[in-house]
Design a protein that fits this description.
The complex is a heterodimer of chains A (about 110) and B (about 110). Chain A has about 110 residues and is mostly beta strands. Chain A is built from no helices and twelve strands. The model of chain A has no long low-confidence stretch (mean pLDDT about 95). The model of chain B has no long low-confidence stretch (mean pLDDT about 95). Classes of the chains: A mainly beta (about 110), B mainly beta (about 110).
């Protein structure tokens, strides 16, 4: 079955510390891969995407993600977290034919001052 | 460019009542999606439109949910009658081709 797993429901980091959010997927073929961020009361904002090519992708707000085909993973990283990064983060896979997305259950990030 | 617009932002109704949500996608985006996001979960696709035709409605509870996209632009999602388990945020998204989906701010529905 097609699925996206975000194993960490909550993560707490101190401001200035590095961050890595995990995402694993189960899919028949290499899908499109996305990370979105959702602040309270808001919709989802795209952080970055992987379609093809370089497996290390850069996004907005200093985020990056690395696609590892052998591990079916697409982990999100940031070298130094800011208090404004506190939000919920969703990993998603997209079908290359239908453009349908499947989302993970999200990781809620808390940032300590 | 203007983003995806949704209204209302909040709605409170009693069970067995009906409710409708409206979405205006980004101009020129042929594909429109409605998602249901239950608290603590990721968004789940309810229905996908391509222009004014339905591409996928396999996850839409058709006994109570309906959606339309007249003229291939705006869309409405209706629930009739509402159940307690329909309490959620309803998100609309749009895209063009393989471009990433852009999301509206959603409608938070509470069923009493």
């Amino acid at each position: 079955a097609q699925s996206v797993t975000q194993p960490d429901i909550h993560i707490t980091v101190s401001e200035g510390a590095s961050l890595e959010l995990r995402c694993n997927y189960s899919y028949g073929a290499t899908p499109y891969l996305f990370w979105y961020v959702q602040s309270p009361g808001q919709g989802l904002q795209l952080l970055l995407k992987y379609f093809s090519g370089d497996t290390l992708v850069q996004g907005i707000k200093g985020f990056e993600a690395e696609f590892k085909r052998s591990q079916s993973s697409f982990n999100l990283r940031k070298p130094s977290v800011h208090w404004s990064d506190a939000a919920e983060y969703f990993c998603a896979v997209g079908d290359r034919g239908t453009y349908k997305y499947i989302f993970g259950t999200g990781t809620r990030l808390k940032v300590l001052a | 460019e203007a983003g995806v617009a949704q209204s209302p932002r909040y709605k409170i109704i009693e069970k067995r009542q009906s409710v409708a949500f409206w979405c205006n996608p980004i101009s020129g985006h042929a594909t429109l999606y409605w998602y249901q996001q239950i608290l603590g979960q990721g968004p789940k696709l309810l229905i996908q439109f391509q222009n004014n035709g339905v591409v996928d409605d396999s996850q839409l509870p058709k006994d109570r949910f309906s959606a339309e996209r007249l003229k291939g632009v705006d869309s409405t999602l209706k629930i009739q009658p509402a159940k307690l388990e329909d309490s959620a945020v309803y998100l609309c998204a749009s895209s063009s081709g393989q471009s990433p989906q852009h999301f509206g701010d959603g409608t938070r529905l509470s069923i009493l």
